[in-house]
Amino acid sequence: MPRYNYKAYGTNGAVETGEIAAASRGSALEALAHRGQVPVDLVERGAAAPIKWWQREIFAAGALSTAQLAIFTRELASLAKAELPIDDALRIVAVQPSIPARLRQINAKLLERVREGQSLSEALAAQDGAFPEYYWRLIRAGEAQGSMGSVLDELAILLERSAEARAQASSSLVYPAVLIVAALAAVGVITSVLLPAIMPIFEDAKATPPALLRVLAAGHAVLASNWLLIIIALAAVIAGMLSAMNNEAARFTLDRLVLRLPIAGRFVRERETARFARTLSALVRNGVPVLDSVRIAGGVLTNRVFAQTIQQAGEDIREGGVLSRPLSRSGLFPDLFLRLAVVGEETGHLDAMYLRAAEIYEASQQRQVQRLTTLITPVLTLIIGGIVGTLILSVMGAILSVNELALQ
Predict the structure, then answer these.
(1) How crowded is residue 101: how many other Cβ atoms within 10 Å of its Cβ?
(2) CA–CA distance from 96 to each of 75, 141, 309 (Å)?
(3) Spatial distance between the Cα atoms of 147 and 143, rounded to a whole number of angstroms
(4) Which helix (H) or strand (E) holds 8?
(5) Residue 4: phi, psi to the nearest 5?
């Protein structure tokens, strides 16, 4: 018999909440009325509340973001560790206030498939790529071993760390972005408001304005007379960049160039190494075959050069080799990671060694982001302050020159 969660005014006028079993929604309303309660909300247990039009996501296709996966997995892991059945856990997740709109829709589909008799991993794999392969493969391994709670908890930790690193990198760019926008706004005000008021005075007096003001005035004139062509050119450049990003050969070339950069290259190497090591460790530890684990972990990587190297390494393993040899030949992975991989293969503790490597390089990345944030803020402040200060001094000098011309 269906069960309904209700919110109603009781006989004393206070709001009461609870659960009631009834054959239908109408029967539940009648039962509450017989009790002397006035219902204000009645939702079938596990049914997601209807999504308001302003809460719907515009771009609701494709894979879920890391932050969304982390929220969903943490909620599900907490319930699975309490040994609740999966269908009951999904019903409870559906009414959690922290779950965004698209996740509620997907959760409803998962619950429907689970109630039809599918396993959770099968339901996840059927969600049109919303969940990555490593995600549902790990859950399938947990289902086979009877360790769903621990697997979900491990997945939640992996996703939360990844989401935290991205959030930290994004927040680190907020202040520099504000500085750049403020500088552009100052230049825009000077170019569009002050220059048109000052330049005619120099022209009337047949005097030469300061060099910086002449450059700004020339730039303003070019923008004013060719703004349509400039917009078309920018649109063409953006379209070309988007086309290149969708071209695998161009993306591969760009990824290779990034790896050759002094600072960015090292950062990308350590990021991809940490991501590959942690994913591979989780898959191997939960019983996924090594060949499948390598293939799935390679699919998590975003750099095409790294992903191709892992794919080639999988072919070597298929022919009877070990993973560390092709990784060492590629020259992409750090020496410490390769040494830990060899130790793991020799001792049979591959998952533990890869987990240790992931922790090392994740900590290294965090330190790099902190150092970069600490350095970039004062440097940008000095650069932008110098630019804006130079502009203000030039304008003040021009104003003084205007006063002198007016007195002549």
Answers:
(1) 15
(2) 8, 27, 41
(3) 6
(4) strand 3-9
(5) -125, 135
Q: What are 118-154's pLDDT values in tens digits?
A: 888 888 888 877 888 888 888 888 888 777 888 888 8
**Separation CA 134–CA 163 (nearest Å):** 16
Structure letter (DSSP) for residue 338: H
Strands 15-21 and 3-9: antiparallel
Strand partners, 44: 4
Per the CB < 8 A criterion, the answer to whether 141 and 121 are in contact is no
Residues 6+ apart with CB under 8 A from 384: 179, 180, 182, 183
Cα 120 from chain centre: 24
Which amino acid does the sequence have at 138? Answer: L
Token readout for 404 is 């002198």
Q: What tokens does 306 get? A: 């790294």
315 Cβ contact list (under 8 Å, min separation 6): none
Neighbours of 13 (CB within 10 A): 7
C-alpha 151/C-alpha 149 separation (Å) is 6
Measuring CA to CA, how many Å separate 357 from each of 169, 336, 353?
21, 8, 6
pLDDT tens digits for range 54-110: 444 444 456 788 888 888 888 888 888 877 888 888 888 877 777 778 888 888 888
SS3 of 36, please? coil
0.70 surpassed by pTM:
no
- Give Cα separations from 14 to 6, 7, 30 (angstroms): 14, 10, 19
Q: How far apart are CA 241 and CA 256, in angstroms?
A: 17
Residue 144's alpha-carbon distances to 7, 262, 288, in angstroms, are 40, 45, 11
CB neighbour burial string for 57-91, b if at least 16 within 10 angstroms, e if fewer? eeeeeeebebbbbbbbbbbbbbbbeeebebeebbb
- Contact indicator for 9, 16 with CB cutoff of 8 Å: yes
